[in-house]
């Protein structure tokens, strides 16, 4: 029996998923982020080593039993000269297993559309889009560093704008809404300036910690706060811009399938409905993801090993999604 490992390395966590040659789920492991700019190259090796060994122990198999690995690393490909360094860091952990390193957009796209051409947009800690045309050419848009206002529509972007709205309401530049009182009560801020103490001083404006505040945008939207709802509409506009840009690059004469991944989409209709409206002027169909990004990594590992992907394999991968 052959086994395949898909690794989905994002800005917050890294998920390892092990499946057999029939696409049947065997086990998984969750580890910290493997983004090399956050954890360092030694951190990449450590994360991959821990995740692999955890899966091997749970499945009671050896490295030689794994036929192929697709290792998705957030940040891979952003700075071309760093790619060999990331690959070497991954090799230290996975050797001698055959593997390929890619950006986390690649497995997200493969998973969301089960390997078919189309477009996927990620809105997790950060945001980025990837498209694949019928000829197998990839197109990428977005993913610029959050420090410059990039990662539009992401959890970090939502959280940063949430804090901006809090400060505007604190000053009286905007009328206070539920958002202001909710954030003070939920975060335990006695004074409004406690936001700076916690987020800037104590957290050192840590990207992952700031992004975690995006969950409050969802809660506020559910409670009817107009500013939170508007934030999702603005996020949908930004994500739609990414999708439309890729759509025009793909230049297909038929309907292009579009899907999505990342925690921002857990907010459901608050972001999906305005995204559908934003995309109504181009020839696309927005569909829920078929497979999760980690399963997309398994799919890419299978393809690299020249395994024919049958409907049965896809169906098996979809279970325990």
Layout of helices and strands:
Layout: E1 3-9, E2 13-20, E3 25-32, H1 36-59, E4 66-73, H2 83-94, E5 99-102, H3 104-112, E6 118-123, E7 127-132, E8 138-142, H4 155-171, H5 178-187, H6 194-202, H7 207-211, H8 214-222, H9 226-250, E9 256-261, H10 269-278, E10 284-286, H11 293-304, H12 311-318
Helix pairs in contact: 1-2, 3-11, 4-8, 4-9, 8-9, 9-10
CA distance, first residue to last residue: 22 Å
Structural class: alpha/beta
The general outline is globular
| Estimated radius of gyration | 20 Å
Lateral strand order in the biggest sheet: 3-2-1-4-5
Give the topology string: H per helix, E per strand. EEEHEHEHEEEHHHHHHEHEHH
Number of discrete domains: 2
How many individual helices?
12
Task: Give the CATH level 1 class of the largest domain.
Answer: Alpha Beta
Number of strands: 10
Major sheet attributes:
5 strands, mixed
CATH superfamily of the largest domain: ATPase, nucleotide binding domain
Summed up:
With 321 residues, the chain is of the alpha/beta class. 47% of the residues lie in helices and 19% in strands.
Describe the structure.
The chain has 2 domains: 140 residues, ATPase, nucleotide binding domain (Nucleotidyltransferase, domain 5); 175 residues, Nucleotidyltransferase, domain 5. 47% of the residues lie in helices and 19% in strands. The chain is globular, with a radius of gyration of 20 Å. It has 321 residues and is an alpha/beta fold. Helix 4 packs across helix 8. Strand 6 and strand 7 form a beta hairpin. A 5-stranded mixed beta sheet has the order 3-2-1-4-5, sandwiched between helices. It has 12 helices and 10 strands.
């Amino acid at each position: 029996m052959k086994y395949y490992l898909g690794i989905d390395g994002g800005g917050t966590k890294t998920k390892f998923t092990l499946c057999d040659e029939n696409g049947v789920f065997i086990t998984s492991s969750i580890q910290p982020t493997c983004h090399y700019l956050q954890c360092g190259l030694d951190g990449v090796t450590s994360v991959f080593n821990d995740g692999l060994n955890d899966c091997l122990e749970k499945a009671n198999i050896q490295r030689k039993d794994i036929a192929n690995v697709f290792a998705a690393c957030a940040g891979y490909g952003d700075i071309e000269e760093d790619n060999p360094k990331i690959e070497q860091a991954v090799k230290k952990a996975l050797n001698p297993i055959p593997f390929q390193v890619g950006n986390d957009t690649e497995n997200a796209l493969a998973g969301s559309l089960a390997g078919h051409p189309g477009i996927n947009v990620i809105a997790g800690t950060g945001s980025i889009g990837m498209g694949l045309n019928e000829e197998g050419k990839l197109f990428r848009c977005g993913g610029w560093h959050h420090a410059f206002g990039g990662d539009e529509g992401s959890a970090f972007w939502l959280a940063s704008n949430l804090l901006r709205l809090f400060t505007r309401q604190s000053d009286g530049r905007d009328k206070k809404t539920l958002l202001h009182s909710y954030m003070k009560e939920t975060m335990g801020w006695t004074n409004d300036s406690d936001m700076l103490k916690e987020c800037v001083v104590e957290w050192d404006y840590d990207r992952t910690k700031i992004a975690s505040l995006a969950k409050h945008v969802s809660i506020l939207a559910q409670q009817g706060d107009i500013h939170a709802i508007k934030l999702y509409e603005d996020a949908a506009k930004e994500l739609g811009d990414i999708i439309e840009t890729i759509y025009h690059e793909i230049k297909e004469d038929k309907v292009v399938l579009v899907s999505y991944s990342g925690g921002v989409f857990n907010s459901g209709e608050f972001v999906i409905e305005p995204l559908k409206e934003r995309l109504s002027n181009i020839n696309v169909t927005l569909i829920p993801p078929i497979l999760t990004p980690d399963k997309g990594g398994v799919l890419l590992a299978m393809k690299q090993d020249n395994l024919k992907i049958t409907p049965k394999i896809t169906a098996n991968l979809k279970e325990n999604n």
